Amino acid sequence: MHSHHSHSGQFCKHAAGTLEEVVLEAIRQGFEVYGLSEHVPRYRQIDLYPEEEGLTLDQISSQFEQFLVEAHRLKALYASQIRLLVGLETEFITALDLESLDALLQKHQGQVEYIVGSLHHLNRIPIDFDRPTFEKAIESVDGSSAFLCAYFDAQYEVLRRFHPEVIRHLDLCRLYNPTLQFSEFPEALERAKRNILYAIDYGALFEINAAALRKNWETPYPGVDLLQIILQHGGRLALSDDSHGPHAVGLNYGRLPGYLERAGVADLWFLEYSETPNAYGRNVRAVKMEQHWAAHPFWSRFS
């Protein structure tokens, strides 16, 4: 089985454990492919989170570079037991983040094997920190419809500029309102469809992200409405636990088969390392699971 998205307390202050502990837990649970994808640095002091108080911007940048070194060390060390992928998770707070990511990717070409495309802010305000901050972000753009539209427009800019191989929590914009139906916001729904079709066209994988289940959602990300749009247009799906430490490796994976079955998901995909760079200069390619996903022996541990 596979996961394309994870964090560790060693390199992410709101996570726990070391990167090696995360890898060892993934091995223990029988993961065959596991993606290491720490957050990229942020470039304004105001954008640091409370748990990062006292850190400088130089330390934040150095922390990410240390992650790349350690991730590649672990990839080589445990190559006989698991296929590790070394990637990053994007941020888009201001244009500075996009410009800086361009520079980071050029500097570390060959070390960053794939990108997890994410968006955690709207109008420079975090949307996944807590409910009051989430509500503040909505108020800052004059209500829910404008908020949803702005979210998908910002997401589209990340897709268009970087073509991330994995689209993370496509609908994080309804984090604190998981029952929200995009059909009630037609302008936002059109933007979501635009993003989905664009990502399908360049070959992205869409995460079925189990983290939503530990945030009191009834489903993983994305919700049923967006998942059906992805499936109707031939989009390709991959799994992620979005773990924030060894305690969360594979967390709630046992609840994924029911969701996939109800949605009629026939195929799952995963990334694997490729010596030949893809169209965007990164060393991965998408591969379809040979067997039907439900037949994989990994699920037997949950029965």
UniProtKB/TrEMBL annotation:
<dbReference type="GO" id="GO:0000105">
    <property type="term" value="P:L-histidine biosynthetic process"/>
</dbReference>
<keyword id="KW-0368">Histidine biosynthesis</keyword>
<dbReference type="Pfam" id="PF02811">
    <property type="entry name" value="PHP"/>
</dbReference>
<comment type="similarity">
    <text>Belongs to the PHP hydrolase family. HisK subfamily.</text>
</comment>
<dbReference type="InterPro" id="IPR004013">
    <property type="entry name" value="PHP_dom"/>
</dbReference>
<protein>
    <recommendedName>
        <fullName>Histidinol-phosphatase</fullName>
        <ecNumber>3.1.3.15</ecNumber>
    </recommendedName>
</protein>
<comment type="pathway">
    <text>Amino-acid biosynthesis; L-histidine biosynthesis; L-histidine from 5-phospho-alpha-D-ribose 1-diphosphate: step 8/9.</text>
</comment>
<keyword id="KW-0028">Amino-acid biosynthesis</keyword>
<dbReference type="InterPro" id="IPR010140">
    <property type="entry name" value="Histidinol_P_phosphatase_HisJ"/>
</dbReference>
<keyword id="KW-0378">Hydrolase</keyword>
<feature type="domain" description="PHP">
    <location>
        <begin position="4"/>
        <end position="210"/>
    </location>
</feature>
<dbReference type="GO" id="GO:0004401">
    <property type="term" value="F:histidinol-phosphatase activity"/>
</dbReference>
<dbReference type="InterPro" id="IPR016195">
    <property type="entry name" value="Pol/histidinol_Pase-like"/>
</dbReference>
<dbReference type="GO" id="GO:0005737">
    <property type="term" value="C:cytoplasm"/>
</dbReference>
